[in-house]
């Protein structure tokens, strides 16, 4: 899977399995994410995409398997770290954009406060600097700085999603995890968000793992795809190859959209 000798993968998952009681969330998933790469995870509803993403992003301890994150030339076992250290990583070097912005934002905290929180967690204490960074990030995600003191509940769906992105990117994470970033948004809002994401990924050199059930979104953003079915990996490859020449019968069904309507 695309690992080069000169650049070791930034994130490696080995045989990741998660059970909810008796129910399989995901099973025996292995993957590598290379620096600067966008990896898309696709599959129908209930195929285990979000479960895998939450395991990979450090938010859900797998029942079995290992996730290694490479930092300072060393691969660290994400769930082998002391909880405090893992939480610090989640607030700084890793970012997760939830499918529902209400899960990823503090709804009782202003837009500026939402962005500033991760800077505070990094130890920044200067109010003026935090506010100006928050303003800069609001501008970057195309939200008027006049809205800095407003609560996210007063924002539209697309604005909330962009605020979540700003909140995650303010600490310049190396890896960004996106869970259905455009779902629930109308088509023109989706297109604007996708443009923004493409620009940010390129400008910041982000490595991204993105879950989507929308193959058009996958085609636009992802270099490589991983297709899941019933918690397991069925096919992986470069996005164009998987979408234009799907090998597995399940992927063929997905591409013909029969499973995604
Ligand atoms: N909190 C939970 N408790 C119990 N079972 C769960 C929980 N979350 C997910 N599951 C189950 O795990 C399986 C995979 O679900 P998951 O949400 O990961 O799939 P998904 O591909 O992300 O689906 P969707 O696209 O609908 O979000 C499903 O059978 C689901 O019912």
CATH architecture of the largest domain: 3-Layer(aba) Sandwich
**Strand order of the biggest β-sheet:** 6-7-8-3-9-10
CATH fold title of the largest domain: Rossmann fold
Helix content: 25-40%
> What is the total tally of β strands?
10
Shape: globular
What number is the mean pLDDT? Answer: 91
Annotation field: number of helices: 10
Q: Give the N-terminus to C-terminus distance in angstroms.
A: 30 Å
Low-pLDDT windows of residues: none
Major beta-sheet overview: 6 strands, mixed
Radius of gyration: 18 Å
Small-molecule binders here are: adenosine-5'-triphosphate
What would you call the quaternary organization? single chain
Task: Please provide a written account of the structure.
Residues 11-255 form the ABC transporter domain. The protein folds into two domains: 1-83 and 174-260, P-loop containing nucleotide triphosphate hydrolases (Rossmann fold), CATH 3.40.50.300; 106-173. Helix content is 38%, strand content 25%. The chain starts with 10 loop residues before the first strand and ends in a 6-residue tail after the last helix. The protein has 261 residues and is α/β, with parallel strands linked by helices. The protein has ten helices and ten strands. The protein has a six-stranded mixed sheet with strand order 6-7-8-3-9-10, with helices on both faces. The chain has a four-stranded antiparallel sheet with strand order 2-1-4-5, covered by helices on one side. Adenosine-5'-triphosphate (ATP) is lined by residues 20, 23, 25, 43, 45-51, 213.
């Amino acid at each position: 899977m695309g690992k080069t000798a000169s650049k070791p993968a930034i994130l490696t998952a080995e045989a990741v399995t998660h059970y909810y009681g008796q129910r399989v969330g995901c099973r025996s998933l292995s993957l590598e994410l290379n620096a600067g790469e966008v990896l898309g995870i696709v599959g129908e509803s209930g195929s285990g995409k979000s479960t895998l993403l939450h395991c990979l992003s450090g938010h859900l301890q797998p029942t079995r398997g290992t996730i290694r994150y490479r930092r300072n030339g060393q691969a660290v076992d994400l769930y082998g770290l002391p909880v405090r250290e893992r939480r610090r990583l989640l607030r700084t070097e890793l970012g997760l954009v939830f499918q529902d912005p209400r899960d990823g934002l503090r709804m009782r905290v202003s837009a500026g406060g939402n962005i500033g929180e991760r800077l505070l967690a990094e130890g920044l204490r200067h109010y003026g600097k935090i506010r100006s960074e928050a303003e800069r990030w609001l501008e970057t995600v195309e939200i008027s700085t006049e809205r800095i003191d407003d609560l996210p509940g007063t924002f539209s769906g697309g604005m909330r999603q962009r605020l979540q992105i700003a909140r995650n990117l303010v600490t310049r994470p190396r890896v960004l995890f996106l869970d259905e970033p455009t779902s629930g948004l109308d088509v023109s809002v989706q297109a604007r968000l996708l443009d923004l994401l493409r620009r940010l990924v390129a400008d910041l050199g982000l490595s991204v793992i993105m879950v989507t059930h929308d193959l058009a979104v996958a085609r636009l953003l992802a270099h490589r795809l991983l297709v899941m079915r019933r918690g397991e990996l069925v096919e992986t490859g470069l996005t164009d190859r998987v979408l234009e020449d799907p090998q597995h019968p399940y992927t063929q069904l997905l591409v013909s959209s029969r499973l995604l309507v």
